[in-house]
Amino acid sequence: MTIRTDTAVLDRKGLEALVEALADDGRTVIGPTVRDGAIVLAELEGADELPYGCGVELDAGRYRLTHREDGAVFAHSAGPQSWKNFLHPQREKLWSADRTADGEVTVSAARPEPVSYAFLGVRPCDLRAIAIQDRVLTGGSYRDDGYGERRRGAFLVAVECAAPGATCFCVSMGGGPGTDSGFDLALTEVIDEAGHRFLVRAGSREGAALLEKLPRQEADDATRAAARAVVAEAADRMGRSMPPVNLQRLMGDSLEAARWDDVAARCLTCGNCTMVCPTCFCTTTEEVTDLTGDHAERWQRWDSCFDLDFSHLHGGPVRSSGRSRYRQWLTHKLGTWHDQFDSTGCVGCGRCIVWCPVGIDITEEVTALKAEADAKSHVTATTEDRTYEEEEAER
Fold first, then answer.
1. Is 248:184 a contact under the CB 8 Å cutoff?
2. In percent, how much of the chain has pLDDT > 70?
3. Suppose 304 and one of 27, 216, 271, 320 were both cysteines; which one would form an S-S bond, judging by CB atoms 3.0 to 4.6 Å apart?
4. What pTM does this model have?
């Protein structure tokens, strides 16, 4: 059944009421706030903790806060965290085991207190990332029940992007600064001569019900037009772009490319790109015990394909070189992800570019791989043409 989308306009007081209403519903409200020189995602006590008047300056290996005179709340690009930190936490206890005095062992599954999250300020690229992780972690035969429980209870307030950063490339990955689905409420921030306000749309029954509780105004044509213009202008201001090529095919055809040696000479294999990526999902498990040996726990934690032990089998790691590990990450993200999950694993948020300590740029690497593949194809075609001409001359 199609859910009718309701539209209204909120002012700053309406935004404050939104945060209060989410908290009053018993939800833990997570949103952007300024901390330690960055805009991070954290629990909000009120709307006054949002980053009013803050922007960001981004580039490869560079992140700086900037001041904005217009007092915009959401005029900043993706920060060092994504919503993965809350839905798919870095460390989670799976079970514990205890041995009694008579030697009997009991195993108890970890059952953390359920959390009902409200995510405020979810960018369209991160909405796509959540949808990808939904497919990975709740579909198929190997579901993550903890993720599923947290995801089912999450209320998503999306914010359409008005200020893409120099490292954003969502449009070239099939996304964009606007969104039409996957949210409970969607905000578009508008600042013009008519004032500072938010066009809000409900995308679910829960969203529509919450919107009814808020102090709001009827959506007028001028605000609708201004909101459309914000999104359209943002789409034209992407700082990066992927080359227009079939990435799955390019990755498959580039396994022996010389470019991998070039990037391996720069890559520290630190795994920062996988930590900040909103779709990377790999985990490992570890067991810990107390000093008595009578209590043990199993924990799940994030892992990275850049970790030397990630592919360790009897006799050693399968991918021992930095070249092979970077190639694994990029070819999986852009290529073989399609084979597993029928989509790309990249949403174009640019976090891997910003938070790489040596500034490796995924769009630059793919462009170089394409140039190398094109050059190889040209040489092959030229050789074939010459062979044909020589055969014709002999005839």
1. no
2. 94
3. 271
4. 0.90
